[in-house]
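sanity check this fold:
=====
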Amino acid sequence: MTILGIAGTAKNTGKTTTLSALLEEGRRRGMVPGLTGIGYDGEERDTVTSLPKPRLHVYPDMIATTSERCIHVSTARGEIIARTGFRTPLGEVLILKITRPGLLVVAGPNKTAELGEVCRAMGKAGAGVIFVDGSLNRIAPFSIANAVVFATGAARSTDAEVVRNETVAIERIFSFGTLEEKTAPASGIVMHGSDVWVCLARNSVHGREEIGRAIGMRPPGFERMDIPGVVTAEGAHALSELVVNLKLTGEVVFDDPVKILLGGDPVLMERHLTACAAAGFLPRYRVRPSLKGITVNPAYPAFDGTVYTPAHVEARAYVNRVRTGVRTPVFDIVGEGGVAELFDLAVSNPQSS
């Protein structure tokens, strides 16, 4: 089963446009896609700018997940094929087989375990590829995905250099290697053969104090530090400083690159991890979705101090600048096309990096 996460680096960067184009490409190819989300999306107007938003159009035989109250404000209709028992503020999360095409407001689970169960249920119901709608501030469950596509653009910054630098950083964060074993050890000092690990507590957020304490308790023969959960920017900074100053070598193991992105500014987070790698303390992940593509949206909501109005940067120059130094394929799917190529990259071979 292929699970593809679509994440926006900010509001109005074209995530819904990217997702809608990939869904339509799946329909054109005769596939049965699944659609779910992390939290709530699909509203008619942006809650900040009040400008119209692209809508998610679904079609018969698709498998989709939403919450009960969203059905009543959607024009699409579907047969309920599973009640998950998971709750959102908009009611129970339901799995539907779409019977009447139309617009769907999506509201799905925001916990990794629940999203995993929903995706498995959608796969059993016949979905060949499952699209997960998310955003940079709520993508923790993306660790279950095989592949990820990020949407960015002028709504993130009208300065293409800023967006390029962030895109390079995200790409670098996703480039570090993975471990063979997937199970995280318990917290504390752990002996594993000839290796000695220092393992921080699971399901937590780790900052400067926690990182400093863990390194301070390192025993002789220390080879590896496990940092499950989210690492803050201050924690990553402390880690890189201590690694360099103490000349530590070995490995630092994180759950997945998504947890790094949740910690703070991607450019700063990448800088700290790269400093660790350069010093010989190599970052590793337990799981790592493949970064398959970047979409760039030259449109953005301009604010004059009173109201928002639609605006654009010069598309070709902006997109080409974002592409500079980026190895991951970058698409302007509205201005240049390329949806079929993006679909092939993201869906046909999700495990390759």
Summary: DSSP finds ten helices and 23 strands in the chain. The domain at 2-174+289-348 is CATH 3.40.50 (Rossmann fold).
